[in-house]
Each structure stands twice: as C-alpha cells, then as structure tokens.
C-alpha cells in the first residue's frame, strides 16, 4: 500500500476503522458530589468548604477561569459551542462522557484528575486570575483526604464502562505504608495506574524510602503517571507571590507553565540518573501532557553525560545507557501532539507515543468542531503517516501499556472510529491556524 504496511485488523484505507485511545482525559465530580466519599471526621469541614467553593471555586474549563488567559472572543465561542450545549457535563457524568467519546470516535480513555478535587478551590492559575481574586491553600493532610475521596468517586465513574475507562488513582507520600495500602486498594477496585504526586525537594524520588512504593507498583503492574501540576517538586505558592506584579495575569501563566514543565520533566532525570529505574526494572512510567519533542535531545544529553563527559564514572548506579532505561520503561502521553512531533516520531519513538484528547480542556483536540478527526488529519494526515505507525500511536501503544482489552474495544471502534482515509489523508486547508498543531518541536504547551 502506498502509505506503508497495514496495521493488524485493517484491510484498506477505506475499510476497517481505527481504534482511538486517548492517554489523557480528565474527570472530576461536582464539588458537592464528593460529600458521600469524604471520611466522616472531615465531612463537616468539607461541607463548609463546599459553600466557599460555590462562591469562589472554578474548574479549569469554566469560562471564568478561561477569561484569565484567552481572548474574549475565544471565551465567547467556548460558551456558545461547548458550555451552553452541555458538552462539559461529561466531566462528572460518565453517561455524557461516553456520548462525547462516541461523537469524537474515541473508543477508550485514560482518566486523570483535574483541578476540582475536594478542598481545592481551583488551578494554580486562580491566584493570578483577575476574576476570582482569591485562592485557598490546601495542606497535605487535606490533600490526602481529598485524594482518597476522589479515588472512590473515580471507581464509580469508571464502572459505567470499565472496558473504556482506565482510571488513574491519586495518592500522597505522607506515609509510605498508607500510600501502599491505597495503591493496593486502587488495584483491587479496578484502577489501572497511579499519578505521581507532588513531593518535597528534601525527600526526592530517588530516596530509597520510596522503594517500597515502586516495588508495589511493579508487583501490581500499575502504571506510574507523571502529569504537570499534579506531579513535581514545585508547589507554585511562593512563585504566585513573586509573580503578582506582572503587567497582565496572562504573563504569569506562561511563566508558571514553564516552571511546571521543567519540574515535571526533571522526574525523568531523577528516575534514571539516580538509579530508580535500575533498581526497579519492571516499573512503567508515562510522562503525560509534557510534550514529546524534548525527548530525543534529553536522551542524547543523558547518554553523552553517561559515557562521554569528564564526569566520574556512574555505572555502579546507572548500569545501562539512560536511553536504554527509557526504551525499557518509559512512555509518552504526547498531548497535545503537534505535527512537528508526528514528523519526528522515529527519533522520539513510535512505540512510545500516545495521543491525548485532553477532554475537557479548551486546548484539547476533542472540541465539537473541528474535533478529533480533523486534529488527527492535521497532524498524522499532514505527515502522511503509514497506517501501522498511526495505529500504534493513536491506540495500540495505550492499549498495551494500560491493559485495555482490545477484543472488547474492537466492536466499539468499528461503530464509532474513523476510517484510515479519514485521518491519514493530507488536509487541503489549514484546519488549525492557532493552537498546538503548529507548535515547534520541543516547545512547551501552547494552550
């Protein structure tokens, strides 16, 4: 075939439909709906918090939140095409979520938390949002309670379609034993992985105190998922104060996003250069919504430092080349995927990259118009990606990593998925003059 070999289960560009699995989707409850999941000793305090949230709280997809970083006409368009028709209800209602997935041709989805967990007033950007003017700071004890409540809500959410949802549990590292207990509970409840939490710089990830956590994830075959704002050693609270004098709040957002990207990507350095992946060879780590164009340069840098610099030999700790650890144990939830990243797929790793629809965020590829199919055509089609490579990146890699049952998903994909020709044919017009499609290779999220 002209575009390359045919992926398993596909017969031609006009026949069998492609299976799309999003590695990056977000779900949270309406704040009051967490009340049944909150531990009794915190329930009264949480009910008081809910009253505060109703006045000041925002979700990341709310128009009030978007006003701090988008042009007015884009916010107006968001309200008209997304909010008013009810497309955001899939954030907390699994039935509506399945409707959104079907409409976009997405067979299955990895579910990651979003801002809007218990005791959380909003995203880190609320502190510089001229609309809200207020931010509550949640301590780690309340964060721990909130995450346990979220996990139990998430299990119920995923039970609406367990073959289509792979839920990611959230944990705190306050107490290693209780963290391990929560991970074991999450596995038994049907969740597929664990989000890397924020951690203290005084106790970095390579500290051997965390080895029991990594061993538990190995034994349970639970994926460790890194996501900016959820996973880093940076809380952002100090920077919020130092950035208060920026000429416009949107200036601070760009600086904060850069910091989140830096500290989240640094997790790869800690896991490789300080021996975590060597000590735990079965631990699987996915870096989600951190872009993927930075990976080739990062691996070249790490490999050269390992074998070609003047630095003292580190082979007693890092026995393999850093790129070999990455090849063995790391993956990329490459949202939002740009055309440049698709073009560099061989250097990044075709077997490592997974698309992310990023529902319900404004920058996601899921919008009612133009939608997932057009986004994939603007990236995969524009680069004329062969079917077998596209099949891996848009679904196969995620199915393997997160343990989706492909036999159960195949009938769903045949019902809703795009035909290969729909997304692998170059577009005749520029479908996305703004946003992440034209993002330069290695650039952080454009939004």
Sheet/helix structural class = alpha/beta
Summed over residues and divided by their number, the pLDDT gives a mean of: 88
Task: Indicate the percent of residues in helices.
Answer: 40-55%
According to CATH, the fold-level topology is TIM Barrel
CATH class: Alpha Beta
> Whole-number radius of gyration?
21 Å
Mind telling me which CATH architecture this is? Alpha-Beta Barrel
> Count the helices. How many?
18
> Could you name the CATH homologous superfamily?
Metal-dependent hydrolases
Main pleated-sheet profile: 8 strands, parallel
Helix/strand order, N-terminal first: EHHHHEHEHEHEHHHEHHEHHEHHHH
Q: What shape does the CA trace take?
A: globular
How many domains is the backbone divided into? 1
Across the major sheet, the strand order is 1-2-3-4-5-6-7-8
Tally of DSSP β-strands:
8
Low-confidence segments: 1-14, 125-135
The end-to-end span amounts to 36 Å
> What is the percentage of strand-forming residues?
5-15%
Task: Describe the structure in brief.
The chain has 447 residues and is of the alpha/beta class. It is built from 18 helices and eight strands. The chain has an eight-stranded parallel sheet, with helices on both faces.
């Amino acid at each position: 075939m002209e575009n390359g070999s045919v992926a398993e289960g596909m017969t031609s560009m006009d026949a069998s439909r492609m299976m799309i699995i999003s590695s990056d989707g977000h779900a949270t409850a309406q704040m009051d709906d967490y009340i049944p999941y909150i531990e009794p000793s915190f329930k009264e305090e949480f009910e008081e918090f809910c009253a505060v949230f109703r006045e000041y709280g925002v979700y990341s997809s709310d128009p009030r939140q978007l006003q701090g970083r988008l042009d007015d006409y884009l916010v107006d368009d968001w309200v008209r095409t997304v909010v008013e028709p009810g497309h955001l209800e899939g954030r907390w209602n699994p039935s509506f979520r399945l409707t959104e997935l079907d409409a976009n041709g997405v067979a299955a989805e990895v579910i990651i938390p979003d801002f809007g967990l218990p005791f959380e007033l909003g995203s880190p950007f609320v502190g510089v949002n001229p609309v809200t003017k207020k931010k509550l700071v949640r301590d780690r004890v309340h964060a721990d309670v909130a995450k346990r409540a979220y996990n139990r809500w998430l299990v119920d959410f995923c039970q609406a379609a367990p073959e289509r949802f792979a839920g990611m549990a959230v944990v705190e590292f306050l107490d290693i034993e209780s963290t391990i207990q929560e991970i074991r509970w999450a596995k038994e409840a049907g969740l597929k992985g664990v989000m890397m939490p924020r951690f203290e710089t005084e106790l970095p990830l390579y500290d051997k105190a965390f080895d029991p956590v990594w061993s538990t994830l190995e034994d349970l075959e639970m994926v460790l998922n890194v996501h900016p704002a959820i996973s880093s050693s940076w809380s952002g609270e100090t920077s919020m104060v130092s950035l208060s004098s920026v000429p416009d709040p949107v200036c601070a957002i760009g600086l904060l996003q850069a910091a989140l990207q830096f500290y989240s990507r640094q997790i790869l350095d800690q896991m490789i250069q300080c021996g975590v992946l060597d000590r735990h060879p079965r631990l699987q780590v996915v870096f989600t919504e951190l872009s993927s164009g930075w990976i080739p340069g990062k691996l070249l840098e790490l490999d050269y430092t390992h074998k070609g610099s003047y630095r003292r030999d580190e082979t007693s700790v890092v026995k393999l080349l850093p790129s070999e650890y990455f090849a063995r144990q790391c993956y990329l939830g490459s949202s939002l995927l740009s055309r440049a990243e698709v073009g560099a797929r061989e250097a990044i790793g075709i077997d490592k990259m997974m698309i992310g629809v990023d529902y319900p965020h404004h920058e996601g590829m899921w919008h009612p118009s133009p939608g997932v199919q057009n986004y994939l055509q603007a990236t995969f089609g524009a680069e004329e990606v062969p079917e077998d490579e596209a099949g891996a990146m848009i679904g196969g890699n995620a199915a393997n990593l997160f343990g989706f049952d492909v036999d159960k998903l195949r009938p769903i994909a045949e019902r809703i998925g795009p035909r290969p020709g729909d997304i692998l044919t170059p577009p005749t017009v520029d479908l996305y003059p703004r946003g992440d499609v034209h993002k330069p290779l290695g650039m952080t999220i454009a939004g």
